[in-house]
Amino acid sequence: MNKILTFSIAAYNAEKTIRETLESLVCDSLTMDSIEALIVDDGSTDSTAKIAEEYVKKYPNTFKYVSKVNEGHGSTLNYSMCHAKGKYLRMLDADDLVNTNELARYVEDLKAQDADCVVTPFINFNDGDDNEEYVSRHNLNDYKIYSITDTCTPIAHEFAIKTEKICEYGGKILEHCSYVDTEFSFYASMSSETIVKLPEVIYRYRHGRDGQTVSDTGRLKHFFDGQKVIFHLLDEINENWINLDLSKRSLLYESCDYVLDIQTYAIIQLPYYQKNERLNKYMEFIKSICDKNKEYMEGLSQRNHWYGLRNVCLNLPTNGKYVVWGSGIYGKRVIDVMLSVFDSELYIVDGNSELWDTYVFDIKVYSPDIIIEKLGNDAKYIIAMKNNVDLVREEIKSKGIRDDMIYGYNGNCF
Prior knowledge:
The chain has 3 domains: 5-209, Alpha-Beta Complex (Spore Coat Polysaccharide Biosynthesis Protein SpsA, Chain A), CATH 3.90.550.10; 217-303, no CATH class; 310-407, Rossmann fold. Helices cover 43% and strands 20% of the residues. It has helices at 18-23, 29-33, 48-58, 73-83, 100-111, 163-169, 180-191, 216-221, 225-239, 246-269, 275-292, 294-303, 305-314, 329-341, 368-375, 389-398; strands at 5-11, 35-42, 63-68, 88-93, 97-98, 117-119, 122-126, 132-135, 145-147, 159-162, 194-197, 203-207, 319-325, 343-349, 359-360, 363-366, 380-383, 406-407. The strands form 3 sheets. It has an 8-stranded mixed sheet, sandwiched between helices. The chain has a 6-stranded mixed sheet with strand order 15-16-14-13-17-18, sandwiched between helices. The termini are far apart.
């Protein structure tokens, strides 16, 4: 039987989780005959091979096992892109799961599909926690085929890519490097012209596991990998520039944005550099990206409001008195950055009286009137929010604060 779907399963010392992962692919025989599960063992030294071979022996028409030297997650995807026999190719980490109950219907839907890229909702879950998060990122009607540029860039645990398309493109994912799932997403976007959304909830993405590269420990261990990945992706865009219109470039830039945020967090907020070095290292990093692709950096603030606000903050003097207006998600992010880079006297205010006397990173939230009366124009005011920025700016000015003491981002830096 022709294979409809290949799962690329990267396995490295995965003995604690891989049995559960592989078992989640076990369902009715007709569906399993339509699936290929490539277990690519990236040089494991534990019992990963033994567990994988059990499934190969029991379900030889579905599971395939290959052992190779350790070259990183990217190398396993490169192998699968060259050897997959399925109509579509999908990534499955050896510590994540497939929603078994949805698999048969999903495979049947894939048989009838011809879109280059197929996205589905997914579940976020934490070990030891019964709460689960349903995520559906694409505002598309089910089963209707769209241009790939009609939506946001797909992320690795929500899409299957037509195998022939990604093989024709011929890109090679970085080896001995982290964050390469973003490269896989990038190549899927690069090689696709069409996309469709299916309703089945297929992927179960596990959070909270020790050693994950998105943890602070993992990011310190792989400190420069984000820089390697974003440079690689921008090189790919530059090389293919003549064939990419602006809408396609903007889609591909979204993958770069994700890696940029990872690397910026590492430089600014992890204890790799001394506090007084971090801002200069960040500016060097941004300049090197701008030298590679100026268009990318010029459009970044428009795509990413947080980058625009962060850029406002990082262009301010690192000492003095600052009042952060807003204690929500942007307020927390601004304070986190300022504590990592600034040697300043920091205050937080919020217009919502219910938040007064609460704390953000051990800093008390005050009524705006109290702090403005105390500091007046001796402090700079940062509006840490996405909506109603101009209204808040006018409110601050109405309380006697000079225009040149107020900073924020409303689509344009002011």
